[in-house]
Structures are given as C-alpha cells and as structure tokens.
Specification:
By secondary structure, the chain is α/β, with parallel strands linked by helices. It folds into two domains: about 190 residues, Rossmann fold (3-Layer(aba) Sandwich); about 150 residues, 3-Layer(aba) Sandwich (Rossmann fold), CATH 3.40.50. Helices cover about 35% and strands about 15% of the residues. The chain has 13 helices and 13 strands. The protein has a seven-stranded parallel β-sheet, with helices on both faces. Helix 8 links the parallel strand 9 and strand 10. Helix 7 packs parallel to helix 8 and helix 7 crosses helix 11. The two termini are about 15 Å apart. Its EC number is 2.4.-.-. It holds the Pfam family Glyco_transf_4. One of its GO terms (molecular function) is glycosyltransferase activity.
Length: about 375
C-alpha cells in the first residue's frame, strides 16, 4: 500500500501539532505500508531514516498565506503523476486541491485538525479562501478523519457517513527527576508556570501574561515559561515581549523532547490559554506527565472530561489570575487523567482500517 502525505511541513524536528501528529502516526505503521511525506525545504533541519517512510523535499516560501498553497499545488501535481493508492492530506487549506485529485481518479483522505479560518492570524481574504477550501475538501474527500469529535458533530448527517473520529495521541512523556535542562534555562523546579505551543495569536498568550502579572505570584519567586517558536507572527511576539519587559517571564523558543519532559515534570502548573485548537498535543503531554493544569474552556479542551477546577473562560484575565493563585496555594501532587484511550497504537490501527476501507477490493480477497 502506497500512501502520499501532504499538508504538514514535515518531520522530524519541525515545530507544530500537525507535524508531531504525522511523525507519531507514520513512523510506526506496519512495514507493508509505504509512506511518502512531502516536506517544505525551508523548515527541514535534520533527517532520520525510517524503514517505510521516505521524504520528498520541495521548495516553499515562508510567506504566510502562500506557503501551504504553493507547496500543496506542487504535491498534487506529483501525486497525479505517481498515482499512489491513497493521498492523505492534513488541514483544510491544502484540501483545496482534493477536487483535482479526485477528478483524476485518486483516492483521498482528509484529516481535519481545526477550523483554521477561526484563527486570528488570518486576514479577511485568507479566511474566505480557507472556508472555500473547507467546502471543497469536505465535499470531495473519500473519507474524513476528525481529531475533534465536536467538529465532526457539526457536519451534516449525510456527510457524517464518510467521517471518522480518530483523536490525537500521546506517548513517552514520563516524569523525570533530571533538572539539567532547567538549570541551563535559569529555571527553578516547582517555581514556574508553563505554556507550550507555537507563538501565534490564537494561543491567547496575552491573556496568560496579563493573568500571570495580575495574580501577583511573581512576588513569591514564580516565573512564567513560554515554550514555542515564532514564525511569521513577529509583530504579535514583539507585543508579548513588550508586556513581559523586566518581568519574570521567559520565552525559550522551540525546544526538543528532552527539555519538554523536564519542564512538564517540574512545573507547578501548566496553562493552555488558547482561543482555538484542534486537539492540543501539549495538553495531552502535560496530562501524561501528571501536571496540574488550567485550560481555556473551548471545545478542544473538553474532549477529555474534567471537572470545572481545570477550566477558565477563554480570554478572561481576572478569572485566570484568580485560579492561578488558587492552584498555587493548593498542595502539590502528581495528577492522573483519563487518557488511556489516547494511545498512538490504537490511533495507527484505526487509521489503517480507514486506508483498507478505501482499498476494500484489494484487502477483502
């Protein structure tokens, strides 16, 4: 079985939830499934060898709004020439080309990660294009995988017959005792609040910073640690830096798993302040490590049922500040969450089942 994949910047070592999703999904599939992943050259900084995964690195711009479109067009042309068994596309923007692929007889699966047009970083014209892409992708894809079941339930009943809910997963984020990475970053164990994610407006980091400062815990020696890289949103990042000037707030940039494990293991509180998400992997990582957490109340953070103590109203600085103070004052312990089903082995099996359903004649002999 030959699967061609695009809609991700690639992996390994490339920041992003979709990128982590693809790395976990494709690198551990059975060896009879040959996967070809299209990567965007400007983001490729390292290579790894996988027994059944190959890469095609294509030129791409880093211009917001153009990058994915140009890359996806080139990927589509190659798919039309090479004709894999299945084309697996991630995100609705690249899904714009699904009608073209279907017109020439290719089988296409779309993984719907999030409604990208809800993200604040996009202008009016880009949002209209993404909405058009969503219509095209959802209408013409053979199968649609949703990582968020709330998004799936929004679909018309007729369309839901070709939709499947397969969530994100998490693995390998066990607690560690080491603090070597923390020491390098100038961070004291149990004396910081942690946020992990790409620095973009939809992450609500201005709400987090304002709430941290309003809470007053800085006076007790606490720091706010924000982990994530900056790409095209430099104006937004500069605004955050201005808010944080001369305060106990650290921007670490993008960090690898070794650093993340230490940060999750020794944080006093993990906060996800996002306005929009598909199914946040950072939330799952924090849960698997046993962090105490606070989550903005959006559909993506309520996929895993938790009590109200773990939520705050998105964008509400005063409520978040109050809950930060309350959490910090409570006894500290390792938390346990109901995430057993968010297992990559199960997710891989479910995805392969979708693949085989599209190639029923071949696999029902």
């Amino acid at each position: 079985m030959k699967i061609y994949v695009f809609g991700t910047r690639g992996f390994p070592g490339i920041q992003g939830g979709v990128e982590k999703h693809c790395e976990q999904l494709y690198t551990n599939l059975s060896k009879d499934i040959q996967v070809t992943v299209f990567r965007r050259k400007p983001y490729v900084t390292q290579n790894s060898t996988y027994s059944h995964v190959t890469f095609i690195d294509l030129p791409s711009t880093k211009i917001k709004g153009v990058e994915a479109l140009v890359h996806s067009f080139l990927c589509s042309i190659i798919c039309l020439i090479r004709r894999p068994d299945i084309v697996h596309i991630h995100n609705i923007g690249p899904g714009y080309f699904i009608p073209l692929l279907r017109l020439f007889g290719l089988k296409v699966i779309l993984t719907y990660h999030s409604a990208n047009y809800e993200h604040e970083k996009w202008g009016w014209l880009s949002k209209q294009f993404l909405k058009l892409s969503e219509i095209a992708a959802l209408s013409f894809a053979n199968k649609i995988i949703f990582v968020n079941h709330f998004q799936l339930k929004k679909q018309k009943e007729k369309r839901q017959t070709k939709c499947i809910y397969i969530p994100n997963g998490v693995s390998g984020f066990a607690r560690v005792d080491n603090i070597q990475c923390l020491t390098q970053l100038g961070i004291k164990p149990e004396k910081y609040i942690l946020n992990v994610g790409r620095i973009t407006p939809e992450k609500g980091l201005e709400t987090l910073i304002d709430a941290f400062l309003l809470s007053g815990i800085e006076k007790s020696g606490f720091q706010l640690v924000i982990v994530g890289g900056v790409e095209s949103e430099t104006n937004y990042f500069h605004m955050l830096q201005t808010k944080s000037k001369n305060r106990e707030i650290i921007f670490t940039g993008s960090l690898n798993k070794k650093y993340l494990q230490e940060l999750y293991s020794h944080t006093r509180l993990f906060i996800l302040s996002s306005y929009n998400e598909g199914f946040p992997l950072a939330m799952l990582e924090a849960m698997q490590t046993g962090c105490d957490i606070l989550l903005s109340r959006i559909s993506a953070t309520q996929i895993i049922p938790l009590n109200e103590n773990y939520y705050f109203e998105k964008g509400n600085v005063a409520e978040l500040a109050e809950k930060i103070k309350r959490k910090i004052s409570e006894p500290q312990y390792i938390h346990s969450y109901p995430i057993e089903s968010y297992n990559w082995n199960k997710i891989q099996e479910a995805t392969v089942t979708v693949y085989k359903s599209l190639l029923a004649k071949q696999y029902n002999r």
